[in-house]
Known about the structure:
Low-confidence stretches of chain A: none
Structural class of chain B: mainly beta
Shape of chain B: globular
Largest sheet of chain B: 5 strands, mixed
Number of helices of chain A: 13
Bound molecules: zinc ion
Radius of gyration of chain A: 20 Å
Low-confidence stretches of chain B: none
Number of domains of chain A: 2
Strand order of the largest sheet of chain B: 2-1-5-3-4
CATH architecture of chain B: Roll
CATH class of chain B: Alpha Beta
CATH architecture of the largest domain in chain A: 3-Layer(aba) Sandwich
CATH superfamily of the largest domain in chain A: NAD(P)-binding Rossmann-like Domain
CATH class of the largest domain in chain A: Alpha Beta
Helix content of chain A: 25-40%
Largest sheet of chain A: 8 strands, mixed
Strand content of chain A: 15-25%
CATH superfamily of chain B: Beta-grasp domain
Distance between the termini of chain A: 50 Å
Oligomer: heterodimer
Shape of chain A: globular
Number of strands of chain A: 14
Number of helices of chain B: 1
Helix content of chain B: under 10%
Amino acid sequence: MTGKERYKRQITFEGIGEAGQKKLSEARVCIIGTGALGTIIANSLCRSGVGFLRLVDRDYIEETNLQRQTLFTEWDASENRPKAIAAADHLSKVNSEVQIEPIVDDANASNIERLIKDADLILDGVDNFETRFLINEACHKHKIRWIYGGAAASGGATMNFLQEDDAPCFRCLMPEMPEPGAYPTCNTAGVVNPITGIIASYETAEALKILTGAESVSRRYLAVDVWDNLSEYIDIEKNPDCPVCAHRRYETLDSPFSSYAAALCGQDSWQIVPENRRAADFDALSARLGRLGEVKTSKFLLRFRGDGVSFKLFPDGRAMIDEVKDEVAARKIYAEYIGQ
Amino acid sequence: MEIAFKFIGMTKSLVDGKAELTLDVPENCTVEESLGILGIDCRTTKQFHFAAVNDKKSELERILQPGDSVKVFPRSFGG
Ligand SMILES: [Zn+2]
């Protein structure tokens, strides 16, 4: 199955046409976060024939994801497969013409520029503002367009950041990064799947417009709430004193990278990213941890459960520590069970 | 002067679930002060992201004029 027949309906649409389809087939898109928003965006862009898709996600699939994260199955959840891998596997069966590069990693200051630099457009599917501040700075530095999207409960919002001279950046929209814990989480607010579908679909529509050079690309902030029957378009102005887009000060990007921990939205777990990333020796760890509890390994993950401690370890040394109340408790478990 | 307020999504919980209300505010009242009258501290409230006046994101210090409409937006964080 190749080419024209597959895309017939969208080539017939006058907004895209033959010329637009060619541009899509030559486009390179990076989707950061392949949860609810990211899976829907990836699915739509893959079916639309975007030539290259990089899917970045640090997380693995759990049963609570299935309600809204459309590319995953019960088997993926039972195996705790990494989201980026499962999404890429699924989509490669949907459209084998698209080159898909799954990356199982946390997008952070040490790797964000590498992840975005060779892409024409970045789409936001992340669940936290720290990563969005980072995407904003890296994209401004390298003049790469990106699309913000966020959703929670029954509401969501999206906005394009096009790197135009007088246009605002994400930092103009949100001058201060909220402290982790200073905003509600998916745990406390919940989310219904029409809103993630709608926000992801708006992001996808804007992506298609940006990549095909449509004049109707949106320059406003859009907020939608499906329970309250509203959609609101708001003008956002550039802040003439914005550290990022006015002064080119990249505080998040330039902060020295060290070992760090992050609470994971929607889960009672913490991610630990060690400073020196080196391959975890699953065989040696399995032998050692097997004396303390139940260990399961796959190519992507080592799972441990025993004596009130539960975690997942990735081959690159990152770990998700489950059911811990704070960073200190998570780091203690990492040190005692995994080491370094 | 009467100002119309609209609370979007999760910000409704700041005003007992009311999506829309009007409020009589004093002359030279700022956006921040008007929300303060409703018991909302814009600087510390988790749900508050920004306020728009007449569909344009506004500084909190902006002085409201008769006929202005204020919309209050939550932070859209999840993915
Ligand atoms: Zn800015």
